[in-house]
Amino acid sequence: MALETIEDIIRALQEHPEWREPLLNALLTDQYRQMPSRIDRIEEALMRLVEQTAETDRRLRELAEQNERRFQELAEYQKASDRRIDQLTERIEALVERVTEMHYDLSILKGVALEDYYRNHATSILGKFFKRMRVVETGIYLDNLDDQRPLSREDWDELRLVDMLSTGRHRETGEDYLMVWEISWTVDDNDVQRALARAERLRQWDIRTVAVVAGKGITGSAHELAQQRGVLVVLDGVPQDGSGLIH
Asked: What are the mean pLDDT values of the chain's consecutive 10-residue runs (247 residues total)?
C-alpha cells in the first residue's frame, strides 16, 4: 500500500486502528506522550484544591461565626463591666461624700468639745495670773455694753461670734481685763487676726482687753504673729508667753 498523501495516511489509520499508537509513539516525544496523565494529575490536584478551598471556606465561616459570638459576648461583658464600674463609682462618690460629711461633723464636734474644755477650765488655766477669773455669757455681756452705749448692727454681728469671753484681775498690776478668746483645734493666722480684731472692737467701750487664742496646736506663722501682736497663746491647756501678762 502506497501512502503518498495525508488522505492516504488517514485512510490507512482508519483501516488499521492498531497503527495509531505506534505512529503517535513515533511522532510524539516523551513529554507529549505523558501529557494526558499529567493533565489527569492536574485535574486531580485541582479537585483536591477545590475541596481544600471549600473546607477552608467552611472553617473560615465557622471561625467568623465564633468570632462574632465572642465579640458579642465581649460587648455584653463590656456593657456589664461598664455598668458595674458606674455603680462602683457612684458608691465611691457617695462614700467620699459621707466621709467628708463625717470629717466635717467630727471637726465641729472636736471644736465644740475644745470650747467646752476651755470654758470649764479657763479659771484654773489662767487663775495663776488673774484672780476672780470667770467666764461670762457673751449675749449678756453684749447686752450690758449696749446699755452703756448702743452697739451697731455690725458690732453686734461680729462680737456675737466670739468663741468665749472671760474676765479677771491681773495679780501683779491689779487691773481688770476682758479676755477675748478664739478657740481652734489648730490655731492659724486667721484665728489670731479675729481675736485681735474683736478685742480691738471692744476697746470702743474703754475696756482693757487681751486677745487669747487657744487650741491643741498652732501653726508657725500664727505663733510668730501672736508674739508680735501681744496675743496670749494657750496650747493644750498651758498658757504661753506672748501678751506680756504672763511671766
From this structure: 69 74 66 66 82 85 86 85 87 83 73 88 92 94 92 94 95 94 94 96 92 94 93 92 71
Domain edges within the chain: 7-109, 127-240
With vertex at residue 188, the alpha carbon angle to CA 214 and CA 151, rounded to the nearest 5 degrees, is 70
Cell numbers found for residue 189: 493666722
Secondary structure element (H or E) that encloses residue 201, with its range = helix 189-202
Q: Pick from 240, 207, 208, 228: which is nearest to 129 by CA?
A: 240
- Which H or E run includes 214? strand 209-215
Q: Residue 30 carries which side chain, given as an amino acid letter?
A: D
Q: Which CATH number fits domain 127-240: 3.30.70, 3.30.530, 1.10.10, 3.40.1350?
A: 3.40.1350
Identify the DSSP state of 1. -
